[in-house]
Amino acid sequence: MTQFSKYDSEFCGNIPIHIINTIQEYGVLLVLDKEKLTIEQVSENAATLFNMPFRDLPGKPIQEFISAASYAVLEKQLQERSGNKINTTWQLGGHDHFTLLHIREDMVLAEIEIASALAEGSASFTALYQQIKNSIGLLEQSKDIPGLCKTSADELKKISGFDKVMIYTFDSDWNGNVLAEAMEPDMESYIGFTFPASDIPKPARDMYLRNPYRFIPDRGFTPVKLYPVINPISNTFLDMSECNLRAVAAVHVEYLKNMNVMASMSVRLIKDNALWGLIACHHKTARAINGELRAVMELFSSVISARISALHHQAISDRSSYLSGIYAGLVENICQAEELVPGLLDPSPNILALLDASGAIITYNNRTYTAGEVPDAAQLEDLLLWLHVKQLRKVFYTDSLPSMYDITEQFREIAGGMLVIPIQPAQDQYIILFRREYIRTTNWGGNPEERIFFDENPRIYHPRHSFKLWQEHVKGFSKPWLPEEVTAAENLRSFIYEFLTSEYSQE
Fold it and tell me: From 3.20.14.10, 1.20.1250.20, 3.40.50.300, 3.30.450.270, which CATH number describes the 338-439+475-506 domain?
């Protein structure tokens, strides 16, 4: 799979989706000169709102078209510099339009939604507030991240009205893992599925750090061009990185079609200032939702993200406290025994419990001590030669020993992973911990090796057609060593050094 992961990052990771230069047709995009507030660039559907051919708009002051109250608010917002993104309402031709302003150094981008395109009714403020309050209360009661994700999917489906809501997280290779879903019964389930990183390439993922959500009300939209093509202020294509109206790449439209999805909304989930995952909303038919509901989804993004962070750090704290208790018992055993090895291998607690290992070997003072499942003497001798060359100065660990060290099938079963605490590496004195092989099974949404298909023209490519379960079984790994476990191992190494130094000074 390494080949394909690299292929994803090099090909899909270089697609310039921020300069697509077209928009979706549910809104109108204007570019204003920041100082003069004149229209400099427009989307070619501007006549829908301005009752004037789009070619006649550049050069005209925006004050001629929006109400005096809207213009006064715009001036005040620019003077106060209240942020780079401002949600506001512009009145054009006697109708209110939800408008998102992007304040840049020398220009203002205005995304104006066409009221007729957002005709779907909304609940009263009181009813919506009560629904939001109840849902947030349920989220706050979640005790772990899987439970939080399930509650989030259920509640957001009720509030948003989408046919399907999925919560998924990214792994270390940026593959997306579906943790929870709520959907209509006639839709295909993706619960527990993993989607390859190419489905949301790096440029798209980076967008979510700047934009809370991505909304596509109708995948069958007709792209609307900008006029003039080159932005007169920057003299380049317009950077649309933060524009919600930004059009959708043809390959993503085809991707939605293959999923039988007409409308979608993806909302970011952030943990520790990094993209953790997404809330993915799908609808079987085209569906326009108003700015109010999208603001609610953005609010839930913040609430769920905060809860994910809190639960994640609480889990780390709980794990660290648990390991600290075992570590303290281990240290006490060593001090009471006044000997290193008996203290480490004492039945309760012992080093196997501290590091969740299935086997341990301690090579110390020209003797070998073992506990649990360990390789035989000949295998150990070869392993010690390998470790000797490494000249370890700190804890060494891997969850895939077979990928870096040639071992037999039997050896691999008991030593998929290994952690080594050096005692005196120059004398081949180590504490070696093993973890049994753990066969990793990934439930891919479609064959990941068929994630992209090329036309005869290599510049044109298509997403896979099937999202049916495709299982991959990978051998040669153990369960990974957690950061808290590695820290505990480092703490033990430091203690052993001090203990032996004190022991030698007394002799």
Answer: 3.30.450.270
Q: Do 78 and 66 contact (CB within 8 A), yes or no? A: no
CB 273 within 8 A of CB 311: no
How would you class 439 by CB atoms within 10 Å of its CB: exposed for 0-12, middle for 13-18, buried for 19 or more?
exposed
Binned at pLDDT 50, 70 and 90, residue 17 comes out as low
- Check if the beta carbon of residue 251 is closer than 8 Å to that of residue 462: yes
Domain boundaries, the chain: 338-439+475-506
* 23 phi/psi in degrees, rounded to 5: -125, 170
CA dist., res. 345 & res. 357, Å (int): 12
- Angle of helix 291-337 relative to helix 483-506, nearest 10 degrees? 20
13-17, 36-40, 108-112, 220-224: least confident range:
13-17
How far is the C-alpha of 87 from the C-alpha of 285, rounded, in Å? 27
Closest CA to 80 of 47, 51, 103, 54: 103
Q: What is the pLDDT of residues 74-116, one digit of tens each?
A: 999 888 876 688 888 899 988 889 999 999 999 999 999 996 4
85-92 and 224-227 as β-strands: parallel, antiparallel, unpaired? unpaired
Model confidence pLDDT, tens digit, residues 244-275: 999 998 888 988 998 899 999 999 999 999 99
User: Roughly what angle, to the nearest 10 degrees, separates helices 145-160 and 291-337?
Assistant: 170
User: SS3 for 154?
Assistant: helix
CA distances from 322 to 312, 325, 436 (A): 15, 5, 22
Say which residues have a Cβ less than 8 Å from residue 136's Cβ, sequence separation at least 6. Answer: 300, 303
Mean pLDDT over 159-173 rounds to 95
Q: Which of the two residues, 452 and 74, has the higher pLDDT score?
A: 74
